[in-house]
Amino acid sequence: MVAKWLREPFQNPRIEAPVTGESRSDFAAVPDLKGFGKRGRILSSNWFMLFRSDEFKEETLSAADHRQNLIRAYEHAAEVVSGIEPAQLRLPTPCAKYDVASLIDHVVGAGNRGVSIAQGDPVGGDEFPHIELADAPEELRQTGKAAEAAWGDDQKLGASITMPWGEIYDGYTAVNMFLTELATHTWDLAAATRQLSKLDPALAPSALDGARSMLKPEYRNMMEEGSPFGSEINPPKDANDWERLAAFTGRAPRPVLG
Question: What distance lies between CA 146 and its chain's CA centroid?
């Protein structure tokens, strides 16, 4: 019996069992898909394996490794935070739960949490300590260096990682989650402080790919309207990748700035 590999998004509603990525022996029932049968093996948040006894061709695809893009996201966040003026700290952001000051705290805290999770250290909830604006860029840069070391082992990508909210991710999905969080909130800060032109267009495609691979429908409006992600918005036809990321995560891709 030869395996045929098909890539499926994490949020694929056709998968009827939780996607844990715990091991290559985890099985989940899936509906019949083009004759491949009703049994699938969960390999990670991006993959499942389907078997067909009369299939003799094996195809393999690899989940995208976005670790370098994640490391770049720390530096990119630091660049945007460096451009924020003290007078802008109380401005609202597209992430309605936060103003600029509290979102900086969240970005720095979430960045540190990404390192702790990669290292296997215990992490707390979603409340992070305050950091002064002048200290935040360097904190992000130092955390980015720590993240590079923490995620450097290739075996981390296939490891089972228990998230603070109880779900089990593989390393690919955890990297995608932190990349999505850092990049999206960097866009929030840039939009709030009129720095959208400062965003690096080279980072956006990987952040959008990461978001699409890990953002499950049930994450949208899960805690409250717009949190942790709002309903997807259709972006303009001529939208760039940053605008597409914003729209995918429930933000107006071209916000009206006050």
Answer: 18
* 212, containing H or E segment: helix 204-214
For 64-107, write each residue's pLDDT tens digit: 899 999 999 999 999 999 999 999 999 999 998 899 999 999 99
Cα(92)–Cα(87) distance, integer angstroms: 12
Per-residue burial over 21-47, b = 16 or more CB atoms within 10 Å of its CB, e = otherwise: bbeeebeeebeeeeebeeebbbbbbbb
pLDDT digits (tens, 9 = 90+) for 148-188: 999 999 999 999 988 887 888 899 999 999 999 999 999 99
Residues 6+ positions from 212 with CB-CB distance below 8 Å: 9, 248
Under 8 Å CB-to-CB from 184, ≥6 apart: which residues? 95, 207, 211, 245, 246, 249, 251
Residues 6+ apart with CB under 8 A from 127: none
Task: Give the strand pairing for 27-29 and 2-7.
Answer: unpaired
Per-residue 3-state assignment (H helix, E strand, C coil) for 159-216:
CEEECCCCCEEEHHHHHHHHHHHHHHHHHHHHHHCCCHHHCCCCCHHHHHHHHHHHCC
Structure tokens, 241? 């990748």
Nearest CA to 64 out of 171, 196, 190 is that of 171
